[in-house]
Amino acid sequence: MQPLSMHPKSDIQIDLTQVRIDILQGIRECNSRGLVQTTKWLAELNYALRDHKITSEEPSESLNEDITPEEKDAYTLAKCYFDCQEYDRAAHFLENCTSSKCVFLHKYSLYMSSEKKRLDNATDLGTENSESNQVLLDLLSFFKTNSNNLDGYLLYLEGVVLKKLDLRSQAVTVLQASVQAAPTLWAAWIELAGLANEYEALDSLQLPKHWMMYFFAAHAFVELKLSEQALEAYMVLAAAGFEKSTYITAQMAIAHHDRRDVDSSLALFRLLYENDPYRLDNWDVYSHLLYLKEKRMELANLAQRAVSIDKYRVETCCVIGNYYSLRCEHQKAVIYFQRALSLDPQYLSAWILMGHEFIELQNSNAAIQCYRQAIDVNRNDYRAWNGLGQAYEILGLNSYCIYYYSRAAQLKPDDSRMLVSLGEAYEKMEKIPNALKCYYKAHSTGDIEGMALFKLAKLYERSNMPNSAAAAYTAACQDPANSGSKELPAAQRYLAQYYLRFSLLDHAAHYAYKCLEHESTKEAGKNILKMVSEKRLAASSSQSSDLPEDLPEAIKNVSTVSITQDIPKTPLPSPNVTPENFSTPVFTRKNSKYKL
């Protein structure tokens, strides 16, 4: 086994013939054990490689070769019951079987029966089934007793049970052994990715040197919102021969969505829709993109299409919920998200979206419950932590806001929105140094909403640090992205008054003329221009070149420089140089390069 790593494109060597042989074997093994989602995933991947013909296919093997003749009839009957979701009956007829495939199907039937009863009871009564934990404990006892006789599939089931019991570190160890013994068992890789809560934990895993590791690494990057690394990994796989895989196309669309490249993500989803119009997987993300772009008619058509395919899929309920949310019918949206959760209480998107709807309905307590449930499903999703911060901010509990926004910022360090929200919470609690650091870091990482510099400057202004405030305002005014900002007029007025104070009349006049372009600052601009004219007249009559004593030395040295001179852009510049007492904390942006 080896740690998780992925080589550059030129170094990846994947034998597609061996891949197809492994896939066909995995389909047979998983299908005979009732692992339908893994079978479906492998079958789709096999279809993507349909143009790569196998020259010498493995001889056809009996699916039941490892089942004794005495147990074959019981296995066949139990497998039919399992496929019909009659899990208790399936478990009953396999109770005395000893072959590995029968033992797995027996234990898996017990697990699926307990989960089905737990979900049914939770939906009907709003309470957990007390028998569910006992079934899990009994299964765990069996696994511990027979720890030396477990194959890769039974190890996977043990890992799932350990994860359900919140024994995460033990689950990681067992699942690593599972993927080593049965590398084509995609469900085990998925569970393992869900247990890696950060990149360092992901990189420390000991994994088999197998082509499935590349799919796992790319999937894990998507789960951890490492969008750039995920896109690179999937492009490597596409170049290696998997370019026709609908799964890879969908995952790339999700990665583009996570990096806020809405247009690229929509283009990929539309391509998927054309190639596979009945594929409902990931339509919740597709509908969210249409919601962001306010494509009401296209979203309505998507909702009608989803209902015509399967009205009782969780993706269908989420699509309809997003449609009603776009129409501002938030109560109806909540109903459909609740329907999605009644079908699958572990469906993360529905919890988060329902929390957003409760925020719109100003029901903060209900929103908090939704976000907490989302964290229980996946504690690595920054949206749930950020939503909790917003909910507690509405309630005025700023100390809680700081905790939840901090967690969100840790999970999504390149998103300035959480840092700005965290700075606002610090500012409300009068923790000015911390707020300054948050605003500056938000600016350094790439300000999405264009508010970090304005908030930084205002806070400097409040803190009686005029030179630093002027530098921050200047940087904001020079940024073309802020040309339409509602904060711009006030910034220009401040700069005009600031330079007037130091008798830098050209600079003051420059920003005063800018003030005339806005109704809110037009009068202030006129007054400043009048004062500039008076000072110029007084200066020409006195013929004095003395500068005010309180003018910073850095500004004295450049007082004669024209405002029209080209100014090199720095992180937080003044029109010519940064004042000497500009004391903004310096942050070095962390180089986020991850191995794959």
TrEMBL record:
Organism the protein comes from: Bombyx mori (Silk moth)
Lineage start: Eukaryota, Metazoa, Ecdysozoa, Arthropoda, Hexapoda
InterPro entries for this protein: APC8, TPR-like_helical_dom_sf, TPR_rpt
Listed GO CC annotations: anaphase-promoting complex
A Pfam family of this chain: ANAPC8
Keyword list, A-Z: Cell cycle, Cell division, Mitosis, Repeat, TPR repeat, Ubl conjugation pathway
Gene3D superfamilies: Tetratricopeptide repeat domain (1.25.40.10)
Entry annotated with the keyword Repeat: yes
Biological-process GO terms, alphabetical: anaphase-promoting complex-dependent catabolic process; cell division; positive regulation of mitotic metaphase/anaphase transition; protein ubiquitination
Sequence ranges of the TPR repeats: 314-347, 348-381, 382-415
Record protein name field: Cdc23 domain-containing protein
Keyword rRNA-binding carried by entry: no
Cdc23 domain sequence ranges: 19-253
PANTHER family: CELL DIVISION CYCLE 16,23,27, CELL DIVISION CYCLE PROTEIN 23 HOMOLOG
